[in-house]
Amino acid sequence: MEIKFAIIGCGLIGKKRLMSLPKNSVSILCDTNLQSAQALQVISPKSIITTNPSDVFTSDVDAVIISTPNNLLYPYANTAIQANKHVLLEKPGSINVNEISRLEKLNASHNKIVRVGYNHRFHPSCLKALEIFNCGFLGEAMFVRGRYGHGGRLGYETEWRANPKISGGGELIDQGVHIIDLASLFLGEFTKVDGHTTNSFWNMPVEDNAFLNLRNDQGKTAWLHVSCSEWKNLFSLEIYGKLGKLHWEGLGGSYGVEKLTYYKMLPQMGPPETTTWEYPQQDGSWKLEMNRFIEDITRNENNECNLTQARQVLNVVETIYKKL
């Protein structure tokens, strides 16, 4: 089955999406900034370019990838679904729960494949951790502890992410949704949400740090911190079970070599049996995620990273913001 794609939003993430798709599968590149679309056309010369999203929705493409700032995710996805296109939305999928719930309701009558882009699920450490966890080697899950942060850059406070009307919030809705989503893979939906945000360094109207205490229906806890005043980029996710622990560190690049360590508790306790896998290769999560999206379209299966799962993540974010 040959699937024809369009990309709306030709910035850094749009480029990553383009590079992850089969050659010559992108029919249309759309960006309100013509130069951005032209830059990606150099990579995909058979694609036509446009600055008008309506050209995408009225075209014969099968699927639309929406890689725009957060405030445009919902309106473009809404129109794409109504035009009977499959959709891949960048995280968080919308800027509030109401919008993503409306997309769920709309798609119930259109039955398209709608995925929200949580590429961290497709990092090799995550895939290996899920394999170990799902085989029962950690025993019953106890809790998850996660930290994710970067230090921003000069002018960070002037970027669209610092404008709440465009972003919907700060670090929590940016990197925070990734680590909430990952924690939910191991503990399920979080039904008890507590925490707070702070503005510790950056002079901007959105938060630069968020501290979360999340629990599922069984009272199992995820203790999470996200930050854009983390002066050395950091990623760390620890999953604890009654029989052992998994620790995922790094994402490659400035976050350090990605590795997963499995600490197997011994019957006599004491120092655990330790196994480490390192993944120094280039990040292949974008390609794997795109392959899964194509497989879902081919099989007509709306499973992983769907709107329901994305809504559950966004509900955590919105609950924390309402506490402010």
Walk me through what this model shows.
The protein is an alpha/beta fold. It folds into two domains: 5-119, NAD(P)-binding Rossmann-like Domain (Rossmann fold, 3-Layer(aba) Sandwich); 124-283, Dihydrodipicolinate Reductase, domain 2, CATH 3.30.360. The protein is 33% helix and 26% strand. The protein has ten helices and 14 strands. The chain has helices spanning 12-20, 34-41, 54-57, 73-82, 97-108, 124-134, 164-167, 171-187, 285-299, 307-322, and strands at 5-8, 26-30, 48-50, 63-66, 86-90, 114-117, 141-149, 192-198, 209-215, 221-227, 234-241, 244-249, 258-264, 273-279. An eight-stranded mixed sheet has the order 8-9-10-7-11-12-13-14. Strands 3-2-1-4-5-6 form a six-stranded parallel sheet, sandwiched between helices. Helix 1 crosses helix 9, helix 5 packs antiparallel against helix 10 and helix 8 (171-187) crosses helix 10. The model has no long low-confidence stretch (mean pLDDT 96).
Keywords:
10 helices, 324 residues, alpha/beta, Rossmann fold, Dihydrodipicolinate Reductase, domain 2
| Average pLDDT reading | 96
What would you call the quaternary organization?
Answer: single chain
Structural class: alpha/beta
| The CATH homology group name of the largest domain | Dihydrodipicolinate Reductase, domain 2
Shape field: globular
Q: Could you spell the SSE succession in H and E letters? A: EHEHEHEHEHEHEHHEEEEEEEHH
Helix content: 25-40%
Q: Within the CATH hierarchy, at the fold level, what is the topology of the largest domain?
A: Dihydrodipicolinate Reductase, domain 2
- The separation of the N and C termini measures 49 Å
- Number of separate strands: 14
Poorly predicted parts: none
Strand arrangement, major sheet: 8-9-10-7-11-12-13-14
Q: Can you tell me the CATH class of the largest domain? A: Alpha Beta
Most strands sheet: 8 strands, mixed
Taking all Cα atoms into account, the compactness measure Rg is 20 Å
CATH architecture identity of the largest domain: 2-Layer Sandwich
